[in-house]
Amino acid sequence: MIEVKQYIQEIGRKARDASREVARSRTAAKDEALQLMAAAIARDTEGLLAANALDVTKAQKEGLDEALIDRLTLTTKSIKGMVEGLRQIADLPDPIGEIDGLHYRPSGIQVGRMRVPLGVVGIIYEARPNVTADAAGLCLKAGNAAILRGGSEAIHSNKAIAACVREGLRLSGLPEAAVQVIETTDRAAVGYLVKMSEFVDVIVPRGGKGLIERIAQEARVPVIKHLHGVCHVYIDAFADIDKGIRIADNAKTQRYGTCNTMETLLVHEAIANEVLKKLATLYLAKGVELRGDKRARAVVPAMIEATEEDWTTEYLAPILSVRIVDSLDAAIDHINNYGSHHTDAIVTRDIVHAQRFLAEVDSSSVMVNASTRFADGFEYGLGAEIGISTDKIHARGPVGLEGLTSQKYIVLGDGHIRG
Amino acid sequence: MIEVKQYIQEIGRKARDASREVARSRTAAKDEALQLMAAAIARDTEGLLAANALDVTKAQKEGLDEALIDRLTLTTKSIKGMVEGLRQIADLPDPIGEIDGLHYRPSGIQVGRMRVPLGVVGIIYEARPNVTADAAGLCLKAGNAAILRGGSEAIHSNKAIAACVREGLRLSGLPEAAVQVIETTDRAAVGYLVKMSEFVDVIVPRGGKGLIERIAQEARVPVIKHLHGVCHVYIDAFADIDKGIRIADNAKTQRYGTCNTMETLLVHEAIANEVLKKLATLYLAKGVELRGDKRARAVVPAMIEATEEDWTTEYLAPILSVRIVDSLDAAIDHINNYGSHHTDAIVTRDIVHAQRFLAEVDSSSVMVNASTRFADGFEYGLGAEIGISTDKIHARGPVGLEGLTSQKYIVLGDGHIRG
């Protein structure tokens, strides 16, 4: 235990030192490092596949579940995806040093804000080796040092990717400690990492709700949390019915396993009969299980009965809960009370309803006449994302480069003193 | 204990409900409430002074220290200050609902960000009754519900102010639970408050370093921390000497007890002889005790020897530590290693040095040719401040209305679905 603690502290100390060097690195040096990392990964595809095979074989031998093994497995295509991802990050504008709103005050000083790195970012994630490259790239571009702790099932894959990342850093003259992968699988390492506030500025956990809640519970360092997505589509009385159906279909069935997938459909009673009958045909044809409240079941008898628990459940599966509501207020109340403050959409032509929904639904993304599936860093134009924050402070919604930075005040004077 | 817990949970529940109502309140209603609170306080000046006298008498009887009694004591003038403060907050533009950067994406959706309240803000502070009015006003204007917990020494004063605040809320039709003052002096109340993440979105502690560290340690709710200010002025080799002297004098002696007061002076060796001799005369005439490193003492023998501890100490008193450095790099390293990341200034005419200092000093406010005393919400034009954050995430530096808000993404489409 003491050894693990010392090991993590040593990583922290090195990260803090490296972070200062990365913070003042030129854009060109960071972009070169990203391109060289990408090149190293592309060149070493065979080596990465071999390292990954060790992890996959072990996981299979241990009988780990199929979804985990699926996320764990690298392919030539997914490695190409990592390479592309790093190149895209290199092409993004550098957020660091940007000065906003510099203006004169009556005292004669100029005051503005400068965008700066956070410092040291700790990323804790599950057995998805591609996160190692993505997270390294995003943290570096935002001028931070990164400490990465991936799931122990992916340890060989992560070490192999880390070697490519280090090569890129070294060849571009940046400190290798700018990205460090924790190479012990001892779980105590996470406990030390999230408490090391002298060396770590923020922790970003990526993974299931359980992982994130555990980390938030233990952490002494601020955590950017991405909890679960219980997302809603509300089809209003004044909706264009065809658009409502199209959006509700897409929000549920385009992909079942993502956090921005709709889990509960709310329909206004005035149009419920037509909308639910049409949608039920669509959903049932695609094998979606429907769980309705009493009124919804009266319209679509094929629905099974929804329990109180259904309204707060993120299914991540072809299951949908359905409720008929009497009013916009009832819809907003349902979403604020049962939802997870992730992403919610209204379908309506009534601008007052749209405005109220936008203002009053307390979620990180709120949409009018669009599918919840759009809640995504790429779709929003952030270029990349490290996660979707359901927190209210700091970053909210998809977190890209900007969420990995901070702003400090700058003041310019000419000998000004306070009177 | 169980009763205190229930009491705090009840306050939390009411605050959550009220926060939804406040969040959707019109600007005019919030401003009216602020004006009515101000009017109630002005009208009840005698009553507030009487309530405050109870607190002050008790504090004197218990032999509490003079500085505390000074902060605790209300006067006609300080009550007028509260009234003015609330009116100023009413006059500030409403930050809520502001939409930034709405733009079309290639998919056809429009994406932007809307400024929204945080929800429920818990403010924990020491025996300064005026914070009760300030904090209530700022939280309300930013669309939040507030839970206020002031020092137990000020309990009668706080209750009296709270009554005026409630009157303003009631008369303007806003929920009275929009601002609740915790009326028990049981210390356990704070412990429950900072862990109640279902009802509280952020905690802002205002007070000494000890209070804030204790709260950050215990909290499960995110905390906007205002730790201490170990602020520096660095007089560069390329400084205008007169401006350097003027700034160093002002930064130390304009007020000794504020967090943006300079505690350590760094001087480049090339100009140290002239600068330190002139400044020493000034400081010693004002009764400032000087503590220098070896080289500084060689120039000014009246300095006593600075210990390692001096470099990290916030004196809040007429004491200054002084160090001679060989280079800009040495100055930046000293500040980043020993400072508290609050406010630091360089005096120089060299633009490259100024740019490097701005970029590389890792503090919430970084200044060129201006006194550290400018680090203040009013001086920065925020209109008011609830504190100065030394955190890197969310709000950094002086925290005004914007720091009490968040931004959510909004998406507008016309039946758009993801392909």
Provide structural commentary.
2 copies of one chain form a homodimer. The first copy, chain A, has 419 residues and is an alpha/beta fold. The first copy, chain A, has helices at residues 2-23, 27-43, 45-61, 66-72, 76-91, 130-141, 155-171, 188-193, 209-218, 241-253, 269-285, 294-299, 328-338, 351-360, and strands at 99-104, 110-117, 120-125, 145-149, 179-181, 202-206, 231-235, 262-268, 289-292, 304-305, 319-325, 343-347, 365-370, 387-389, 397-399, 405-416. A 7-stranded parallel sheet of chain A has the order 10-9-11-8-7-12-13. In chain A, strands 5-4-3-6 form a 4-stranded parallel sheet, with helices on both faces. Chain A has a 3-stranded antiparallel sheet with strand order 1-2-16, with no helix packed on it. In chain A, strand 7 (231-235), helix 10 and strand 8 form a beta-alpha-beta unit. The first copy, chain A, starts with a helix and ends with a strand. At the A-B interface, strand 2, helix 10, helix 14, strand 13 and strand 16 of A face strand 2, helix 10, helix 14, strand 13 and strand 16 of B. Strand 13 (365-370) of chain A pairs parallel with strand 16 of chain B.
Any key phrases for this structure?
14 helices, globular, homodimer, alpha/beta, 4-stranded parallel sheet
Structural class of chain A: alpha/beta
Shape of chain A: globular
What average pLDDT do the residues of chain A reach?
95
- The fraction of residues in strands of chain A falls at 15-25%
Integer-rounded radius of gyration of chain A:
24 Å
Euclidean distance between termini CA atoms of chain A: 56 Å
Query: Unreliable stretches of chain A, pLDDT < 50, 5 or more residues?
Result: none
Q: What is the β-strand count of chain A?
A: 16
Strand order of the largest sheet of chain A: 10-9-11-8-7-12-13
Largest interface: A-B, 72 and 72 residues
Most strands sheet of chain A: 7 strands, parallel
